[in-house]
């Protein structure tokens, strides 16, 4: 695999394998969730259980939504590998860093820009 200005070919290959494994895990989680939901719908009991079931369905939908968003981030990272832009900060163009990507392979920002973003979000959230 070809490297770019931020990562060697070997690093990119390792991170691609991590991303593909995470994609597989998320897909399996989504599949299990859908199967469990279908099974639960077949087993719905009395009216008391229905409120609990509704709560669980809402909770499961939030989890699936989070998994779907994470899956999109994985797909985006894999596309960036193909484009040769993986590991490059979307905001400032600096290298994200191999160690950061090993911990969070879907990272889109370098640590400096991520900290600035979080600072802005905290400030904006307080107003």
Automatic annotation (TrEMBL):
A zinc finger (dksA C4-type) spans 89-113. The keyword Zinc-finger applies. Signal peptide: none annotated. GO terms for molecular function: zinc ion binding. InterPro entries: DksA_N, DnaK_N, Znf_DskA_TraR, Znf_DskA_TraR_CS. Transmembrane segments: none annotated. Residues 11-81 form the DnaK suppressor protein DksA N-terminal domain. The keyword Chloroplast does not apply. Keywords: Metal-binding, Zinc, Zinc-finger. It comes from the Bacteria. Residues 84-118 form the Zinc finger DksA/TraR C4-type domain. This is Transcriptional regulator, TraR/DksA family.
């Amino acid at each position: 695999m070809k490297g770019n200005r931020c990562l060697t070919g070997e690093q990119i290959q390792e991170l691609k394998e991590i991303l593909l494994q995470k994609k597989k895990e998320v897909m399996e989680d989504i599949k299990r969730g859908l199967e469990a939901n279908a099974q639960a719908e077949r087993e719905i009991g009395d009216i008391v259980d229905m409120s609990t079931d509704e709560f669980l369905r809402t909770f499961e939908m939030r989890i699936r939504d989070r998994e779907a968003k994470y899956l999109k981030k994985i797909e985006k990272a894999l596309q960036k590998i193909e484009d040769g832009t993986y590991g490059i900060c979307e905001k400032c163009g600096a290298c994200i860093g191999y160690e950061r990507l090993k911990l969070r392979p879907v990272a889109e920002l370098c640590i400096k820009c991520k900290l600035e973003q979080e600072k802005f979000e905290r400030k904006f959230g307080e107003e």
